Amino acid sequence: MSVWDELTGQSEAIAIFRAAAADSSLRDAPIGDSAMTHSWLITGPPGSGRSNLAYAFATALLSPPDPEGEEATRRQVAARTHPDLGVLSTEGVIIKMADVQKFVTTSYFSPSVSRYRVMVIEDADRMVERTSNVLLKALEEPPPRTVWILCAPSEADLLPTIRSRVRSVRLRVPDVAEVAELISRRDGVDLATATRAARESQSHIGMAHRLATNEEARRRRQLTLDIALGIHSVSDAVVAASKLLALAGEDAKAITEERDAEEREGALRSLGIEPGGTIPPALRAQLRTLEEDQKRRATRSLRDGIDRIMVDLQSLYRDILLLQLGVPSEPINLAIHSQLVSAAEATTAAATLGTMDAIATARKRIDGNVSPALALEAMLISAAR
């Protein structure tokens, strides 16, 4: 199986990276005369497969020519344990400058077993300006066998000086059918369930996987829509805001709880401490650092959970608006079509459009660190009115 087989809907981008991976003249020809270059930027909407493509490209660059070596490299890249692969990602709101400085330092190491050293930065848009400037120096004078792969939603999320030193590859939103086929084939889900998950996730590959394989995630999404459709007054809106915030908290907890436990168990094992054993005072600082990282991740996960609720609500009112305007388009929330029709008949297109504007405003406010509870209340009160 090729490293490119688990990618979907990005044939043009895949062709670019396959050609680059096949080109071994990274430093034998001037940049621009070769399919390969030392720094790349993969952009595209959330769920389009940016990081999946980045790691497929990394695997192709790091793999030896024989099939067995390629399979071993694929496993190492998937586990993020390949000695010539550097990965910088964050579960926090921003990527810390100290992390970027340390990462840049490791980029100057020579490859140990492969032709290249590959440095991947997921969510490069989470770097503030002064942190980006640390990375800029490495991109301006890269080591001869180091390849940088940055991922971000759009080029505009990075400094112009960064953009001028990378080759950008833009991804598109995959079709629902393409995502459904991938989820069905990769995760062993029946095609009907995979198609519904792909449609309701709006072709977000990661969320489609979660909806297709996690019954609780499907239940929480359905409850989100039911709460929104049940708002008829200002008091309903206030109660609904509280319920949606609780749902986002449940979703965030479900995502982080299991991972936190595994990380703690692994940390204790690496320190030689048996489960349930006493932690020596000299080692407690290391565990406190892990716990602080997990708290930051929980904060980010809650914000992501709230944003997922906003996206689901946007899809709901988008479906209602199209019905009100008589646009012949398949609803995202096809499973509740009768409820969509009832909601469309109960209000006007202008009111629905106003609600969608309120959701967009709430997302901006939360991104600007406004209290999520207040932002949700204001948004839903606007919907009620």
UniProtKB/TrEMBL annotation:
One of its GO terms (molecular function) is DNA-directed DNA polymerase activity. Its EC number is 2.7.7.7. One of its GO terms (biological process) is DNA-templated DNA replication. InterPro entries: DNA_Rep/Repair_Clamp_Loader, P-loop_NTPase. SUPFAM superfamilies: P-loop containing nucleoside triphosphate hydrolases (SSF52540). Gene3D superfamilies: P-loop containing nucleotide triphosphate hydrolases. Keywords: Nucleotidyltransferase, Transferase. It is an enzyme of class 2 (transferase). The keyword Transferase applies. NCBIfam families: PRK07940.1. This is DNA polymerase III subunit delta. The lineage of its organism: Bacteria, Bacillati, Actinomycetota, Actinomycetes, Micrococcales.
